[in-house]
Design goal:
Chain A: One of its GO terms (cellular component) is membrane. Chain A: It holds the Pfam family ABC_tran. Chain A: One of its GO terms (biological process) is phosphate ion transmembrane transport. The complex is a heterodimer of chains A (about 270) and B (about 450). Chain A has about 270 residues and is α/β, with parallel strands linked by helices. Chain A has a six-stranded mixed sheet with strand order 6-7-8-3-9-10, sandwiched between helices. In chain A, strands 2-1-4-5 form a four-stranded antiparallel sheet. With about 450 residues, chain B is mainly α. Chain B has two domains: about 160 residues, no CATH class; about 230 residues, MetI-like (MetI-like fold, Orthogonal Bundle), CATH 1.10.3720. Chain B has 15 helices and two strands. In chain B, strands 1-2 form a two-stranded antiparallel ribbon. Classes of the chains: A alpha/beta (about 270), B mainly alpha (about 450). Chains A and B meet through helix 3, helix 4 and helix 7 of A and helix 11 and helix 12 of B.
Chain lengths: ~270, ~450
């Protein structure tokens, strides 16, 4: 239990010393998650800086995806999941009962582990969000949003001649970029990525990583990854989770070169996980 | 004799299995075998079973006619030729004489003697050929047992053969039904024009049996039946499609697992209610209720109405639609729902715009199955919709359907080559053709939209 009390303090200190935290976009305080009787996440406290990439690393089952799904309240869709503690986006409590989860998810987009384009055309996939949120006033408006989103996702040149073909007919890497285009079409502030490259080959992975680096200028990105090289390549800050505990967080280069905690060091040097 | 043969078959099979397995086991102790001893045993056993069953089948197909022709040939006097009836009568006499010789004429007794001899010969042939072949098969396989003999591959080929044979049974039965209905239909069309059958507006299948009977020339215009069938099917689908689909959506997307665990079996009980029960529910409860409701509204409702039959049939097929649709909706991957929720879609937006479109092919095929079921249903319409072939689209009147007429035409004593009876086959053929088209269309739709997700 001692480590439980220690951990939040360590992480809070680490977050303060993060050089990129000009302004924390997402702030979590003492977040606990329970799946039924299972205590999946213990007292997570972390600041996530704006317009930068934050990577969550850690062995399987360490709670990093669970915490990611707290930030857009996707855990609400799991009936046995229970979340306590506070998460604030721009100083607004997202677990406030008055907050509309639909509006929250329009502000916090998500890209999943396996590309999951809808069984619709490429155009309709990207137009889905703008349509349900009523973002486009006219058909031209909608076309502009779709075009811009596909361009920003680096997919436009590959699909501009076949917008009416099924999104599921694209290759895995293209599907994942389509999902990113779909997420950015509603102009979110934060984009959550849950191991977005784990189903992709190295070339498609490189394309998506490049894209993440470009998107950093406009969005706050939080990425869960199993690949430490990927965390090192794309992120400015890294948080290491282990057994439901946020062990350590800080600038990526510091975490990878001079980790403070023994567990982080063991994980990074490949001693477990 | 056949039972003795079957006992011999069983004994030989077990013996072959044990011998081959034992020999292979003994060899296996000294060196490596290609196949496990059990496979050697199974292959030897099938080398007994297959030829012996084949011989039995040949015996069953040829022996009776051989014995009969021998017995008939023994009868003196004029050969009976092709007169099947006389032949059958004589055969019955001969068979009686075999069982009980007292009181039979000498000629019949002689024929019975010949019958008995022929039967004995056939039986001995069965025993000798069958057991001989089985024994040879067993001996051959036991002799072939060895380290390099591929008994496993051989036995797997035998299994594949058995599987193919089973598949063929189903296919050949279907083909057989199609052809028998088709030939009777063609016979009907030699008596009655197919164009009049398909386009005629008058259905009164009563034909004169005697020359001097009054009127009743028989009119086989099937349009009123097609219209009645369509009308009742439409009413049924109007009930079953929305109710079934919506209950499936509720069950799959909104209901708690506990409620689902109770409600789904209850709904499926509805599918297990015999159609006769639905029939009298329609005739005794629903039809009078509709009639009295119509009277209070000032409408003239027939006591047997298309509406009553259609409504009850709709209730009957609700579980089909809901159960199948529920399965399809559940098969839509959770990742698609997550993707939609992650975009900020509400539950109902997700269902309308993502889940249902993804499940559409399955839902369509569920509907098609329900339509086939509604078109083929007989009992409810017999009891609730009536027998009058009215050409009407008014659901408050009595109508009749194709299935009801088939049943009416074939119930009771009929001569089997009159236009009246044969018209039942023509109706059956049309019905079969229609459901076939429906199934093909459903398969096409499913194929076209399948694999849209993954």
């Amino acid at each position: 239990m001692n480590s439980l009390v220690q951990t939040p303090k360590t992480s809070a200190r680490a977050a303060e010393s993060t050089p990129h935290s000009l302004h924390p976009k997402v702030v979590a305080k003492d977040v606990n998650v329970y799946y039924g009787d299972k205590h999946a996440l213990h007292d997570v406290t972390i600041d996530i800086p704006e317009k930068a990439v934050m990577a969550f690393i850690g062995p399987s089952g360490c709670g990093k995806s669970t915490f990611l799904r707290c930030i857009n309240r996707m855990n609400d869709t799991i009936s046995i999941a229970r979340v306590t503690g506070d998460i604030l986006i721009d100083d607004q409590h997202i677990y406030d009962p008055k907050l509309d989860v639909v509006q929250l998810r329009a502000r916090v987009g998500m890209v999943f582990q396996k590309p999951n384009p809808f069984p619709k055309s490429i155009f309709e996939n990207v137009a889905y969000g703008p349509r349900i949120h009523g973002l486009a006033r006219s058909k031209t408006d909608l076309e502009e949003i779709v075009t811009a989103s596909l361009q920003r996702a680096g997919l436009w040149n590959e699909v501009k001649d076949r917008l009416n073909e099924a999104g599921t007919g694209l290759s895995g890497g293209q599907q994942q970029r389509l999902c990113i285009a779909r997420a950015i079409a509603v102009s979110p502030e934060v984009i959550l990525m849950d191991e977005p490259c784990s189903a992709l080959d190295p070339i498609a992975t490189a394309r998506v990583e490049e894209l993440i680096d470009e998107l950093r200028q406009n969005f706050t990105i939080i990425i869960v990854t199993h690949s430490m090289q990927q965390a090192a390549r794309v992120s400015q800050n890294t948080a290491f989770f282990h057994l439901g505990i946020l062990v350590e967080t800080g600038p990526t280069d510091q975490i990878f070169t001079t980790p403070r905690d023994k567990r982080t060091q063991d994980y990074i040097t490949g001693r477990f996980g | 004799m056949t039972s003795f043969y079957l006992v011999a078959l069983a004994v030989l099979t077990v013996a072959a299995f044990l011998a081959a397995r034992g020999r292979a086991g003994a060899l296996g102790a000294s060196g490596r075998l290609h196949s496990l001893p059990t496979y050697h045993g199974l292959l030897a056993a099938s080398a007994v079973v297959l030829p012996m069953m084949l011989v039995l089948a040949v015996y069953g197909a040829t022996a009776p006619s051989f014995v009969q022709s021998q017995a008939i040939a023994a009868l003196p006097g004029d050969p009976l030729g092709d007169d099947a009836l006389a032949r059958a009568t004589r055969m019955r006499e001969i068979a009686n004489a075999v069982a009980n010789p007292a009181g039979a004429t000498p000629e019949t007794l002689a024929a019975a003697e010949r019958y008995r001899a022929a039967q004995a010969m056939a039986d001995w042939a069965l025993l000798i050929v069958g057991i001989g072949l089985g024994g040879l098969g067993a001996a051959w396989m036991v002799r072939k047992v060895g380290p390099h003999f591929r008994a496993r591959n051989g036995f797997e080929r035998v299994v594949i053969g058995v599987l193919i044979a089973c598949a063929l049974v189903a296919i050949l039965t279907t083909v057989g039904i199609v052809f028998s209905v088709l030939f009777e239909t063609l016979r009907f069309f030699t008596k009655y024009s197919w164009l009049d059958f398909l386009t005629g507006l008058q259905w009164s299948p009563q034909t004169a049996i005697r020359e001097d009977q009054v009127g009743q020339s028989g009119a086989f215009g099937a349009v009123p039946l097609f219209v009645g069938t369509t009308l009742i099917m439409l009413i049924a689908m109007l009930i079953a499609a929305p109710v079934g689909l919506f209950s499936a959506i509720y069950m799959a997307e909104y209901a708690s697992p506990r409620l689902r665990g109770i409600a789904k079996p209850v709904l499926e009980i509805l599918a297990g209610v015999p159609t006769v029960v639905f029939g009298f529910f329609a005739a005794l409860t629903v039809a009078p209720a509709i009639r009295s409701l119509g009277l209070t509204l000032g409408l003239d409702v027939a006591s047997e109405s298309a509406l009553a039959a259609g409504v009850v049939m709709g209730i009957m097929i609700i579980p089909f639609v809901s159960s199948l649709s529920d399965d399809v909706i559940n098969a839509v991957p959770q990742s698609l729902r997550d993707g939609s929720y992650g975009m900020g879609a509400t539950k109902s937006e997700t269902i309308k715009k993502v889940v249902l479109p993804a499940a559409l092919p399955g839902i369509v095929s569920a509907m098609m199955l329900a339509v086939s079921r509604a078109v083929g249903e007989t009992m409810i319409v017999v009891m609730a919709a009536g027998l009058t072939a009215n050409l009407t689209f008014n659901p408050l009147e009595a109508v009749t359907t194709v299935t009801v007429q088939i049943k009416t035409l074939l119930v009771g004593d009929q001569e089997f080559d009159s236009a009246k009876t044969l018209s039942a086959f023509a109706l059956g053929f049309v019905l079969f053709f229609f459901t076939l088209i429906l199934n093909v269309v459903a398969l096409r739709i499913v194929k076209r939209y399948r694999e849209q997700y993954d």
